[in-house]
Design brief:
Strand content: under 5%
Number of strands: 0
Largest sheet: none
Number of helices: 12
Radius of gyration: 20 Å
Number of domains: 1
Length: 273
């Protein structure tokens, strides 16, 4: 009978040199189990369970709409404007936060058996992609309720989603690496993430930002990524080409840096987890 490497600690590994993607594909069953475990643990002992995946962003959207819709009343379909960005932000923030802790929390597995350690932050991000997929259902229902247009430009959605995923994974790999050696990273990131949220036009339009701060806005990578995500859903248009290309380039560069740093230091993880 096949054993579960997550539960039993038994894992056979081929230590030959392979590429990172090939390694993850080889351990895809373990990745699947880790994603399922990640989702189950998040809603453990919760009465509503997985339903909170949908309810959390919806409740946040309702609160922002109640508080800010009058202030930004000229923003058409304001609930949709907020929810679209919230879903993208949640994918990033929750994925990177879970990825930050992923190596340390799986220390018992790392100490006992060989597994590709990058699989833990990857599982954290993949679990958020699963959550994002489920939240698309109420998003599309909201679009219909508000009379927003469904156009063929929705076919562009996977491209900004890919950019956002790559960026989140790159950050998760970096944070997961640093957190192994310096546990204070978690607390700095939590504070920084809150400031990052308010610095990103999620519940307010970018147009209200004073001209002297526009440069800072465009230096915020989440601004471009979320605007590209908003375009096919909220605006019904294709994402701006320059935003799409620059966002994908930045995301792939971040992923490459994160993967290199993680790979170079992962052999030392076992001494710190």
């Amino acid at each position: 009978m096949a054993t579960n490497p997550v539960r039993s600690g038994v894992y056979l590994a081929d230590h030959s040199s392979t590429g990172p993607l090939r390694t993850l594909l080889r351990y895809r069953e373990l990745l699947r189990q880790l994603v399922i475990r990640e989702i189950k643990l998040r809603y453990k002992r919760s009465v509503l369970g997985f339903a909170w995946t949908v309810l959390n962003p919806l409740l946040a959207m309702v609160i922002f709409t109640m508080v800010f819709s009058r202030i930004f009343g000229d923003q058409p379909h304001y609930p949709l404007y907020v929810l679209t960005a919230l879903l993208g932000w949640n994918l990033f923030s929750l994925g990177t936060s879970r990825g930050l802790d992923s190596v340390v929390l799986n220390g018992p597995i790392i100490r006992k058996v060989f597994v590709p350690k990058a699989i833990f932050p990857v599982a954290a991000i993949v679990s958020q992609i699963v959550n994002f997929a489920f939240t698309l259902v109420p998003l599309f229902v909201l679009m219909m309720a508000l009379g927003a247009s469904f156009s063929l430009n929705l076919l562009w959605l996977p491209v900004p989603l890919l950019s956002l995923t790559c960026f989140a994974l790159g950050i998760a790999l970096l944070l997961g690496t640093f957190n192994v050696f310096f546990r204070d990273v978690k607390y700095f990131y939590e504070a920084g993430l809150l400031a990052w949220f308010y610095a990103t036009p999620i519940f307010y339009p970018a147009e209200i930002i004073p001209a002297k701060f526009k440069l800072l806005l465009h230096l915020n990578p989440m601004y471009g990524l979320l605007e590209s995500l908003r375009a096919p859903i909220y605006l019904g248009t294709a994402p701006a080409a320059i935003a799409l290309v620059s966002g994908l380039a930045l995301s792939l560069a971040t992923l490459a840096v994160g993967w290199i740093v993680f790979h170079r230091l992962e052999s030392r993880f076992i001494h710190y987890v």
